[in-house]
Amino acid sequence: MLTRLKQGLLVLSFLAQPALGADCGARDFLAMDLPDGDRLPIEIALEIAYPGVRVDIAAGQVIVPGGAVLPLGRDEGRAPKTLLTDARIAEQFRYPYPLAYTLEPRKSAWHDPGRVRDDAFFRALWFGREADARASLQKVQFRGKGRVNYYVTGKFGVACQLAKAMAEIGDGPDASHPSLRNVGGSFNWRKISGTNRLSAHSFGIAIDLNTKYGGYWRWGGEPEGQVGDYRNGIPEGVVRVMERYGFIWGGKWHHYDGMHFEYRPELILYARLTGG
Known about the structure:
Blueprint: H1 2-11, H2 41-49, E1 54-56, E2 61-63, E3 69-71, H3 80-83, H4 119-125, H5 130-135, E4 137-142, E5 148-153, H6 158-170, E6 206-208, H7 211-214, H8 236-244, E7 247-249, E8 260-263, H9 265-273
Antiparallel strand pairs: 1-2, 2-3, 4-5, 6-8, 7-8
């Protein structure tokens, strides 16, 4: 994992555009007002998270900017392992993302909120071609000790959200924490090992902090669905700031990826709307 992420950074070494500033109008997904009414949480969450997306519950469809129409589907209780290879949009919300800083929910087998992704939806929402993803990248700099550059997409304001989060972390008590130095990486167009599905890093919506402090379930040698505890080294303050600006943390997954943060504001909004 570390090698392929380093490769992703090397490929981007030619990018020299100025780093995006934090004064770009970022949204706080934990504090923003949410609408009342009789609309379903999944509608509200997707449409607020990604402006221009429209959910048609009656037709069972999700329409993304550009006109692509995808089936919403339903969560019919299919096997957890199936969801990792053949998820529908509605099934992405099966596992509630815990808003509290707790690792208790992840002890339940397969409790992986955010790890379930509908690949067709992600390609339509973000990018279907590597060239398009690369063309959208913006540099975000963490100005704490070590100064790290991340390259993420500007689409749907992802770079803006990350810039605001990194600015707050850099001004906070965790600014010098070693998990924020020698980081794993950001953009890297690749498939998830053993699948035909693109990694979240391919779309420029994910970053990895220092691999020594996050931990990754496969490194522990446990079988799928039977992953035990792990030694988390990512500070609570970092996690809370990242979540505020729309990035979920892989440390809350049963199949933990503690270095990993991924822009999925719909899951944070859905958790708020459903009392999570």
